[in-house]
Amino acid sequence: xxxxxxxxxxxxRDFSLATGESDLQLVISLxxxxxxxxxxxxxxxxxxxxxxxxxxLAFLDGKCIGCIVSKLETHSKRGSFDxxxxxxxxxxxxxxxxxxxxxxxxxxxxxxxxxxxxADEVILxxxxxxxxxxxxxxxxxxxxxxxLAQYYLNGNDAYKLKLYLSHPYxxx
Length: 172
Prior knowledge:
CATH topology: Aminopeptidase
GO molecular function: protein-N-terminal amino-acid acetyltransferase activity
GO cellular component, one term: NatC complex
Domain N-acetyltransferase: 10-166
Protein name: N-acetyltransferase domain-containing protein
Pfam families: Acetyltransf_1
């Protein structure tokens, strides 16, 4: 008999404004435990209330074990066309469930949603020392756009990463 792995039992869903406060608490709880940067409640509310369709949660047996928080905005104009930029603000996976591809699936869902909404590029920042994150994002085609000195409150430098979804100089 073939067993079903934890990775196969994970259920992904969008953030729900209908259950917003409970979903918001799940996101906050996971991110506060897993990311080095503290965020005020207003930061979370900013993202999930303005762009709920760009926040995804991963559940295993009813427990939230992963999430990604993103947004999509008009960045600039090129001729008469708006250029849209996606931004991945936060990604967290519970330590007991890492190495199952959940971070990869969450990033893929975020990028796919941005593509559906005609994003031209996606940006994010990650700590210079976070080799796992750099490897993950670079596997999607992100490039190191610039180094940001002492970007984080802990004094660590960051890389700004960029993924082009359309050619940046194309006339539209």
